[in-house]
Predict the structure.
Amino acid sequence: MKIACIGAGYVGGPTMAMVALKCPEIEVVVVDINEERIKAWNSEKLPIYEPGLFEVVKECRGRNLFFSTDTKKHVGEADIVFVSVNTPTKTHGIGAGRAADLTYWEGAARLIASVSTSSKIVVEKSTVPVKTAEAIGKVLKRNCQDPNVNFEILSNPEFLAEGTAMEDLKHPDRVLIGGADTESGQKAIRTLAEVYAHWIPRERILTANLWSAELAKLTANAFLAQRISSVNAISALCEATGADVSQVAHAIGTDSRIGPKFLNASVGFGGSCFQKDILNLCYVCESVGLKEVADYWLQVVSMNDYQKQRFVERVIGAMFNTVSGKKIAVYGFAFKKDTGDTRETPAIDVCKGLIRDGAKCCIFDPEVKAEQIFRDLSAPKFEWDRPNYSRSQSHMLENVQVQSDPIAAADGAHAICVLTEWDEFKHYDYAALYEKMVKPAFIFDGRNILDHAKLREIGFIVYALGKPLDPFLVKGY
Ligand SMILES: NC(=O)c1ccc[n+]([C@@H]2O[C@H](COP(=O)([O-])OP(=O)(O)OC[C@H]3O[C@@H](n4cnc5c(N)ncnc54)[C@H](O)[C@@H]3O)[C@@H](O)[C@H]2O)c1
């Protein structure tokens, strides 16, 4: 059997590496139109950082795992074609700011149709709007020259989380395979299930109809993001009342119906998926006339924007309502720890908010490269993007510095903002950092990961989301 995967990104690369590791008799080829990315996959410095990924790639690469730009050859030869291309939010035209842009998906489908001389199972790995399989089926059928070629489309959404992708792929809570309710559809489901059964217990391989599988992925992300926005909403109320969000979260998390995960107050969710998938869900709801349902889910995104804005206002308010000309060290730019991914990271909006008020941000992140940070902070935002201040690009980059050393980043700074929960931030010598900073020295813990009592002992003025406010903190006017 030969598997091809179109799209060598955060999903395609790690997923196929795991398939190759666990199924040594299957040849797996990951193809991409991006030559740089393929070159990096074939080098010692992979294009994405994910704990444990390099070891697996090293073991399988050249054995039964290959990375190539020859899309036509490998897709043409494959029995199963995974499609793991990007499905970003549309930036213009009808549905801009909401709907999924399926340009790359359709391009991949046309490619598959044009090179296929044998029947294939086409697997949706990308997150797509419900009913995409129907549209893709039509593109495949009408563009394939050979009438004997049959395409069976399966939905097999990916639930991995960046930062823990390899663990998630090795021991997934479940694998979901959706297919048509026909004999050939069920046969295709069995074929794909056989691949996963190499390492995943059968009871964790769930099957469903196509539309349920497509919708389950959007729903899973909406529920996960909703939990973050829910606890963040409560964090604002905690600050106003003197309650402590960690204590509230612990108390509710011990209820087995609620559970303890995803209850940490933070500066907000980021990443390429949560916002995009919720907006897409809302667009689908609106398209079928379910405005109230769309409004309900949209509130999850609004609360996330509110939290980022609230954090910026707290920082500025605490520092006597002015950050003009003040150096602020920013610890963490990736949207979460153990990844170099910055797509939709809250750090972009927080830094822009601070810089708009005149601050000079000195950014340190263990994985994110300086070029990426400059690109993110100078990228024009779209009209539909929130919060509004993100649109102002003037004087942005001249007030940004990127440091490869956390001590240098804090040297001469008035404040440290922790925006990513990297473990190493917990273990810095904050007493030594305090000595190098302008007094009063502030720490704004946007991830609630530091030892706040110890920091106060050193002399820091500490603000942490959802915690009782330090009496020193000034409310912004
Ligand atoms: N990143 C995640 O954590 C995650 C998790 C679950 C699901 N998803 C979903 O998986 C999909 C892929 O996400 P990603 O983060 O891997 O995206 P990505 O942008 O990292 O990778 C997509 C790749 O597809 C390539 N591509 C696009 N069109 C192509 C074509 N016609 N032929 C060949 N290559 C093509 C691009 O060059 C790019 O390298 C998205 O739909 C996303 O929503 C992502």
